[in-house]
Write a structure and sequence with these properties.
Blueprint lengths: L7 H25 L9 E5 L3 H9 L22 E5 L14 H33 L5
């Protein structure tokens, strides 16, 4: 009989934090390229299962050949995402698609999501600390 994973809730939230952190890096990079001619902004899409996507596209199953080979793709804490070009804005005279207002709004919204998830993680950890101290704050 396996013991319950006390960190299951935190593991799931960890993957979400990783996603929002990586997305923040991608979005901030777009802002840094606001004056780069021909630059097309990028964004990060979260993928439910990268392995399922790989198997579906190539009809090839990925298998672990050694214990430390691939991380378990079904692990809830594993970050899974894909970078894609996001040319939603109109290009400027230099062919640059970055809209500073649009990118700043995406950065701000992503930051709020990251902070909310961080607070959820802190709450989970507080609950574990409370339990570890036998309910004595």
């Amino acid at each position: 009989m396996s013991s319950p994973n006390l960190f299951a809730g935190i593991d799931r939230l960890n993957g979400t934090l990783d996603y929002h952190l990586e997305r923040q890096n991608v979005l901030v990079s777009n802002i840094a390229h606001v004056d780069t001619p021909g630059y097309v902004p990028k964004d990060l899409a979260r993928i439910d299962s990268m392995v399922a996507d790989f198997q579906g596209q190539f009809n090839v199953a990925m298998t672990r050949t050694a214990g430390n080979h691939l991380d378990d793709p079904t692990s809830p804490g594993l970050f899974q995402g894909r970078t894609f070009e996001d040319p939603a804005a109109s290009p400027g005279n230099d062919g640059n698609y970055v809209s500073l207002d649009r990118e700043a709004a995406k950065v701000a919204a992503n930051q709020v999501r990251y902070e909310v998830i961080s607070q959820l993680v802190a709450g989970e950890l507080d609950g574990l600390r409370f339990a570890a101290n036998d309910g004595k704050g």
